[in-house]
Write a structure and sequence with these properties.
alpha/beta; 14 strands; 8-stranded mixed sheet; 4-stranded antiparallel sheet; 42% helix
Amino acid sequence: MKKSVKIRLIVFKILLEIYKKSSNFDNSYNKIVKKNINISKNDRSLINNVCLNSIRFQFHITKILNQYLKKKSKTNQHILLLSAITQLIFLNFKDYAVVNDSVEVAKKIKVNPGLINAVLKNILTDKDRVVKTTINHNMLPKWFNKNTKKLHNTDKNIFIKNFYKEPNLHLVFKNKLSLKNFKDKHFKSTATSAFIIDSKKINYLDDYKKGNWWVQDFSSMLPIFLSPEISKKNILDLCAAPGGKLFQAISKGSATHANDINANKIEILKSNLKRLKFNSKISNKNALYLNIEDKFDVVLIDAPCTAVGTIRRNPEIFFKKNTPDIISLVNLQRNLLNKACSFLKKNGIIIYMTCSFLYEETEAQIEYFLEKHKEFSMLKFEKIKNEKNINMFINDKGYIFHVPKNYGSFLIDGFFAVKFIKNV
């Protein structure tokens, strides 16, 4: 088989598996690419690029295809056209190579090659027009539309303009000096964090082996950054891996206990701690059944959620055939909040966080928790002096809530965080 045809067939197989099995991109990519041991690093990079952008632009391409197909395309046909149009329109690959190879892939997966050839050539004729295709909120998955009815129209517009764009890499540093000495091109987001200007593999970045920084989205670092009162405290992180918020707590001089239910993620956490030369107590338990005699000043809950705030990093969220089980996730989040209460000292603080902006996972959880636990009240995030650009992420009610958006010229995740204080 011609090498370029083989590459495009692998792209098709990865996309098909993600769609049908509702698997995560990394799992499908690693499994299918590993079966093809003769693929070079450049080819792996190409496969990664085409797959992710095909998923990101799926709604634009569906709208384009509706103009050229009389009937709704079947799964195999749609996925093949999805990857081919991504290459032609949004990645500007060579026209003849994409069309010819896609026709050959069509033959192998038993899709009408004549139809594939005709559709792609017709779209190429209109390339200057179709590249300007825009979409609206109603074209997104039904489950997402249903669960964002309470989202403000301004946020909906911000989301629709940003969700399909590739995210920026953001690092958090141990201290100001580590950032000052960092040599790769960067833009400071705070005194101890920065966006990376030139994209490259993480382990090729300056000071990786020295352990002076870790990868953490700007949005994800805000709750701990905006909580100076938790410095030098005793902290329990119930869902700690891979560790970003834990590392922030440690860098604030706090003693920490890190727990996570996932054994594989615990190993990643341990590896990260070793590279950073940080220490923490660690447990690998279901947080709901965790038994610890110690009481803590702070409990962190970075709760399992739909992760829609990370859609640019995990675009397969909208691509999977199966919808997320939001009811189960909401119940788990509530159980984690209830469990956290048992670990707190008097005047202890719970910081509840999700990389989501769906009402049921965010603001509804505030209402639930305060109604159930009268001994708690909401503790507002306090604005920090000389941090005007960051303080704007704290809303009028005192918690953090935003969709994926721009921070200057950089793209950040959507996120939610609220603090509760125990008054007895």
